[in-house]
Amino acid sequence: MWTYYSDLLAKPVPRYTSYPTAAEFGDIDTGLHRRALEEAEGDISLYVHIPFCEKICFYCGCNTAASGRRLRLKTYLAALHHEIELVAALLPESARITRVAFGGGSPNAIEPDDFQRLVDSLLANLHISNPVFSIELDPRTMTREWADVIGRVGIERASLGVQTFSAECQEAIGRVQSEDCIVQTVDWLRGAGVTSLNFDLMYGLPGQTMHDLEDSLQRTRVLGADRVALFGYAHVPHIVPRQRVIDGRNLPDQRKRFAMAEMGYAYFATHGYAPIGFDHFAKPGGDPLARAALDGTLRRNFQGFTDDPSDILIGLGASAISSFPELLAQNEKNSGRYRMLSSRSALSANRGVIRTADDRRRGAIIERLLCRGRAQLSTDILSSVGKALQPFAERGLVSITGRRLEILPEGLPYARTIASLFDAHRQPIARQFSSAV
Q1: At 388, phi and psi to the nearest 5?
Q2: Measured by CB atoms within 10 angstroms of the end CB, which terminus of the chain is less buried, N or C?
Q3: How far is CA 374 from the centre of its chain?
Q4: Biggest distance spanned by C-alpha atoms of the chain
Q5: Which 8-state DSSP code applies to residue 17?
Q6: What pLDDT score does 427 carry?
Q7: Which residues pair with 313 in a beta bridge?
Q8: Which residues pair with 276 in a beta bridge?
Q9: Please, are residues 419 and 369 in contact by the beta-carbon 8 Å criterion?
Q10: DSSP state for residue 398 in the 8-state scheme
Q11: What residues form DSSP beta bridges with 304?
Q12: Among 159, 58, 43, residue whose Cα is nearest residue 104
């Protein structure tokens, strides 16, 4: 179904969960973040970052640390409560929080009672209106007590870090979890009222075979996942030191990764799932993500593909990123410095980028290409990328009609590469991004 063109996949490209990407962030005045909060209005989304896991996986590129030191957890949560109160004091009355996402790390690295207190603090301090709650979870540390608090809070959407069911691959990436553990977690979450359950899976893992991947896809379907994110493992040990444990010589090559991505797409597309882009899938009809893809309202933010229509996302916690129409602002990455600043009732967003009119224009094109597969281009932008688009057009991967650019079915695996042509910030020689497939 897909044709492999090695030359079109030779350059690493961003995942484009924002534009400009975090690679373009530089130092900013925290006053910019403060003013953006003071001027925010309408429906707003919230992301709460818990940068801890009980066990750290070798592959993980997230800003997270082991949760073994309870004092560190306690002081971090205290700082998070301070930040909630500070942000709440800055937001105007017209700002309504309609979505709250908890991510990490693993939010279930903290105690269920601490999580309940965190939710209570959000509800007490912020204007939260009939919210949609979502959470990322690690099956290895899931408990019945956690399921109980998820039910009390009313969390409807959950995402499980499954990655692979292959025992050999699990060992290689430092994430050993039995199928029984995952089954138990699914049962608990369904019993707690979770109606949209996502499985994160990975291809391109060390030692992974096509059979290993197909087996994981089948088990995911049988367990009834409503959504699936099938990511290609990004091996960047020069950026993520913990990945040095993984032997790069044991990784599938680019052609095999391409075949794995193609098999994953074909499997889910023929087993009851609607494709969202080329590496996400959702059950049609009931799942909001599938409906958004169908009716053309699919968006993209720091959580990936989403049905969230808000243009404002406020990030809370160390390294969390806030997104406003004219500003991207990232909190202090270092957990210790974040705790110190928050304890002083000071905002810690010290990195980011001011989004120019051209950034917003190009960002809209990139989002439309990734979410809808097509975009209307201005004359100047089309002329600036026309030559770069030709190899894709000549191979039947895109069509250009007037100023309308469309990614054709054969071009799906090249979507991120095509989108990157509109990135005015990207340096062609950069090696800081992952493979497009």
Answers
A1: -70, -25
A2: N
A3: 22
A4: 61
A5: S
A6: 54
A7: 45, 323
A8: 280
A9: yes
A10: E
A11: 301
A12: 159
Quick count: other Cβ atoms within 10 Å of Cβ 370? 25
Token pair in block for residue 392: 């894709």
Residue 136 tokens read as 């990322």
Q: Supply the pLDDT for residue 430.
A: 45
Specify the 3-state DSSP secondary structure of 274. Answer: strand
- Only one residue has tokens 């090249």, namely 414
Phi-psi bin for 272: left (phi > 0), alpha (psi -120 to 50), beta? left
Say which amino acid occupies 214.
E
Question: Tokens at residue 82, please?
Answer: 């301070």
- Nearest Cα residue to 228 out of 265, 191, 253: 265
Output phi, psi for 327, to 5 deg.
Answer: -155, 140
pLDDT tens digits, 110-156? 999 999 999 999 999 999 989 999 999 999 999 999 999 999 999 99
Strands 95-104 and 351-354: unpaired
Q: What are the distances in angstroms from CA 356 to CA 37, 183, 363, 424?
A: 18, 47, 10, 12
What length is written for the chain?
437
Beta pairing partners, 300: 305
Residues contacting residue 180 through CB under 8 Å, at least 6 positions apart: none
DSSP H helices, 174-244, are: 179-191, 210-222
d(CA 412, CA 282): 17
H helix runs in 200-312, sequence order: 210-222, 254-269, 288-295
pLDDT along the chain (437 residues), means of 10: 93 93 95 98 97 86 66 92 97 96 94 97 95 97 97 97 97 95 98 97 97 98 98 90 91 96 97 93 92 94 93 97 98 94 94 97 97 96 95 97 97 96 74 62
From residue 186, how far is each of 124, 138, 198, 199, 242 by CA, in Å?
30, 11, 10, 10, 29
Residue with tokens 């709250």: 100
- Rounded CA separation 357/376 (Å): 17
Q: How far is residue 199's CA from residue 95's CA, in Å, rounded to a whole number?
A: 32
The model's pLDDT over 242-278, given as tens digits with 9 standing for 90+, comes to 999 999 999 999 999 999 999 999 999 999 999 998 8
CA 149, CA 127: separation in Å to the nearest integer?
21
The pTM of this model reads 0.93
Tokens of 122: 């959000």
Q: What is the pLDDT of residue 64?
A: 66
